[in-house]
Amino acid sequence: MSSKFEHSVSYPFSVSALWSLISTEQYWRDLVQATNAGHGSIESFALDGDQVTVVSKQGVGAENLPSVVTAVRPGDLEIPRTSVFRLAGEQITGSMEAAVSGAPAKIHGDIVISGDPAVARYSGQADVSIPFVGGKIEKAIIEQVGLLLDAERDASVEFRQG
Fold first, then answer.
1. What domains lie within the chain, and their CATH numbers?
2. pLDDT tens per residue across span 19-43
3. Under 8 Å CB-to-CB from 117, ≥6 apart: which residues?
4. CA 52 to CA 159: how far, in whole Å?
5. Using CA atoms in the order 81, 108, 112, 40, what is the torsion angle rounded to 10 degrees?
6. What is the pLDDT of residues 112-126, one digit of tens each?
7. Taking a C-beta distance cutoff of 8 angstroms, is the pair 119, 11 a contact?
8. How far apart are CA 81 and CA 139, in angstroms?
9. What is the structure's pLDDT at 63?
10. Cβ atoms within 10 A of the Cβ of 22, count?
11. Share of the chain above pLDDT 90, in %
12. Exposure of 92 by Cβ count < 10 A (0-12 exposed, 13-18 middle, 19+ buried)?
């Protein structure tokens, strides 16, 4: 089973201004604190020329999960996530992948950020290999990812304006 997703967010500043944020480790630490306090952490950050690789651990409390998820996987969820971004001229491209620890659920996708003001476009798929309820869980994952991407965008705008 697999469900495709597309999501986009826009920023009130340029790609280069966004790159100046995402290419610093402190940004990622602040972002996790702003969007996943108490459940998240940065496991590693690497800046290698025009490439940033961030490995984080995020979490979702059981109280925030749909019943279809908690019926299959009770308790809080721990979600290791890897994001890679590459600056290429006037554009940032990248990828993201995440999985739910202890469950057959993962999500992966591509990122393209371009324009002035910058627009980030995400596309990918969620895969949950659980018979009968996998599709419902994939939809819940995609919904949560959309909320997270929106929250990360909002925090990024606040950081830039703050």
1. 3-161 (3.30.530.20)
2. 999 999 999 999 999 998 888 999 9
3. 10, 11, 12, 13, 14
4. 19
5. -20
6. 999 999 999 999 999
7. yes
8. 18
9. 83
10. 19
11. 66
12. buried
The residue type at 52: V
Query: How does pLDDT run across 33-86, given as a tens digit for each residue?
Result: 999 888 899 999 999 999 999 999 988 887 877 787 777 778 888 889 999 999
Residue 160 pLDDT exceeds 90: no
Closest CA to 118 of 6, 9, 5, 7: 9
Pairing of strands 51-60, 77-88: antiparallel
pTM of structure: 0.90
Place of tokens 């961030």: 54
